[in-house]
Amino acid sequence: MSATVVAAPALSGCFASSATSGSAGGGDKRIRVAMMQPPRSGLSPLSDDAFKLSRWSTAETLVRLDADGDARPMLATKWRQNGRTWTFDLREGVTFHDGTKLTSADVVRSLQRAAGAAPKPRILDGVEMDVAADGAHTVRITTDDVDPLVPQRLSSPQLSILAAKAYGKKAVNPAGAGTGPFVLTESGGTSYATLDQYEDYWGGRAKAGGIDVKYIPDGTARAAALRSGEADIVEAIPVAQASLLDENQITEVPMPRTNTLYLNAESGPFRKAGLRAAAREAIDARSIVKGVYEGRADVAKGLLGPALPWADTLRAEVTGRARAADPDGAQITIGTFTDRAELPEVAAVLQQQLQKAGFTVKLEIREYANIEADALEGKFDAFILSRATILDSGDPAAYLYSDFASDGSFNIARLADAGVDTALDKASGTPAGDKRRHGIIDAEAAVLKTDAAIPLLHERVIQGDATNVVGSVKDPRERELIGLDTYVK
Which member of 194, 209, 249, 329 has the greatest number of CB atoms within 10 A? Predict the structure, then answer.
């Protein structure tokens, strides 16, 4: 059915009536979920909203990633490479939520729409590919250059495979068009979403009758929903709220997520390398971890954190950085957002530290949906962002390219550096394994040398579960939350 936008219900009681109501198929309890960020693009899978569809187990990809980041079957059962061409065999017997059968034509349609999107999904930055059917259940993907990570790329939720009904002339509507164990039946805009159990799921029947989602950007309100019993699963409990919950209600998950200060290297004071170096030397990340995060984070040694343990073993000291110049009162504006409760506090600490070093600092803080576009357009001198580093492919090269390549789609630092581009191209083209990891660390060093990005800390997400929740997924990549075996007792 089509998505419907209605007014937001009040928090009080918004989950209670659905906690024990069954789906049409079975009478199993429904799961009430409080999510942090509302959709920014109408739940389009071609945006970051795709990760909501993935966490709800409604939209699926050809490939999934295991705990080590290796590609495993999903809607494709096997694949093989021959030079620039990869061939994928599709799982047979898969039915979309609208009752149509999955065929190679559906895969071609979904992937071509993603490849032609503007902007492209991050995972396709710098990638040109031709997608063609080879029979009813086989798809060939040919890239301009030999690409060792095509299977990992196809695991990105932004490359989910949807039924034909999802694709309008402009927008993509995932309601009733996925293949997962839960079908999206209603989207209340930025207020709520409703999903029901899908009885014909190819992987078996889910243990929960459905999912009732409420978007609650305020972290204190999300934690309160768990304390009051109005939510079963809560995303991203703020550090300050964790101590107010029972220990058996929270799980601390180390994340491949880095809190970074991006400096605008294209315009404003930070176009000068010496002032970027002055900012780096002025910042004390340890005090931020201790004071703002109450020790529930790790001080950053680089852009890649402890979720990738190999990074620290390969990393060497960065050399060749510019010498720090005197800020001499240079006026800068730092932007960040309220959706992650700690970031405004981080901004306040950085303001003090940079003012002490001689900068004149103004803060601009809004909800993320209202500030992202300005950040990408370079309207701030600096921007504090909590950024997932292996969100899309399980491989950090894609993140580094997206954020720091001259033509990267998420280049908030507005960085255009030939040395960085060369290092990123080399890392991206190296086959998976030790050589690729060395190339990634070399690319990280090239970025850090410019001081266009100052990594502060690596986050640990705190997930809240009611004590009667069984089987919720604690996923460092933030792709999974509710699976086949998640249910409320």
Answer: 209
Locate the DSSP E strands across 350-452: 360-366, 382-388
- Per-residue pLDDT reduced to its tens digit, 262-307: 999 999 999 999 999 999 999 999 999 999 998 989 999 999 998 8
Helices marked H in 30-165: 50-55, 104-115, 150-153
Among the listed ranges 171-185, 189-203, 332-346, 386-400, which one has the minimum average pLDDT value?
A: 386-400
Q: How confident is the model at residue 138 (pLDDT cuts 50, 70, 90)?
A: very high
Angle between helices 434-450 and 418-429 in degrees, nearest 10: 170
Kindly report the backbone phi and psi dihedral angles of residue 341, in degrees, each rounded to the nearest multiple of 5, phi listed first.
-60, -30
Q: Which residue has the tokens 């060395």?
A: 438
233/6 Cα distance (integer angstroms):
23
Q: How far apart are CA 332 and CA 182, in angstroms?
A: 47
Q: Is the confidence at residue 479, as pLDDT, over 80?
A: yes
- Percentage of the chain lying above the pLDDT 90 cut: 79
Tell how far CA 300 is from the center of its chain: 19
Beta-carbon neighbour count of residue 44 at 10 Å?
19
* Cα dist from 140 to 92, 124, 129, 263, 431, whole Å: 17, 17, 10, 41, 20
Name the residue among 116, 100, 103 with its Cα closest to residue 46: 116
Under the banding of pLDDT at 50, 70 and 90, the label for residue 391 is low
Closest CA to 379 of 412, 411, 348: 412
Which H or E run includes 233? strand 233-234
CB neighbours (10 Å) of residue 77?
Answer: 13
C-alpha separations of 110 from 35, 113, 202, 263 in Å: 26, 5, 19, 36
Nearest to 252 by CA among 458, 404, 84, 81: 458
Query: H helices then E strands: how many in the chain?
Result: 13, 19
Q: What is the pLDDT of residue 228?
A: 96
Structure tokens at 319: 């050399």
Read out DSSP for 172-198?
A: B--TT---SSEEEEEEETTTEEEEEE-
484 and 203 Cβ atoms separated by less than 8 Å: yes
Sequence-ordered list of residues with C-beta below 8 angstroms from that of 59, at least 6 positions apart, any chain:
45, 50, 53, 157, 160, 161, 162, 174, 178, 179, 180
In this predicted structure, what is the pLDDT of residue 271? 98
Residue 141 is predicted with a pLDDT of 98
Q: Which of 215, 212, 179, 172 is nearest to 195 (CA)?
A: 212
| 119 prior amide bond cis, ω within 30 | yes
Q: What pLDDT score was predicted for residue 457? A: 97
CA angle (112, 113, 117) in 5-degree steps: 115
What is the distance between the alpha carbons of residues 436 and 158, in angstroms, rounded to a whole number?
Answer: 24
